[in-house]
Amino acid sequence: MYIVRINQRMDKCGWVVPEGFSLETDWAELYAVSPEGKVLARYPFAP
Questions:
Q1: Global pTM?
Q2: 34 close to 3: Cβ distance less than 8 angstroms
C-alpha cells in the first residue's frame, strides 16, 4: 500500500498571485493506494 499526499497549489491552477501575497493554507489530501493503483481510502488533512 502507498500513501499519496496531494498538496494545494493555486498558482498551478491558473491563479495570478500578486507579489508578496501567499495563498498557502497548509491544505492537503491523503490517499491510501494499492500497488495496482486502486484508491482504497481518502483522508482530508490539515496540519
A1: 0.56
A2: no
In this structure, which amino acid lies at residue 23?
Answer: L
Would you state the cell numbers that stand for residue 15, as one nine-digit string? Answer: 491563479
**Which pLDDT score, from 0 to 100, does residue 36 have?**
96
Range of the domain at 32: 2-14+22-44
Q: Residue type for 47, please?
A: P
Residue 45: name the closest of 11, 23, 32 by CA: 32
Per-10-residue mean pLDDT for the chain, 47 residues long? 81 66 67 95 74
Q: How many domains does the chain have?
A: 1
Q: Tally Cβ neighbours within 10 Å of residue 1.
A: 8
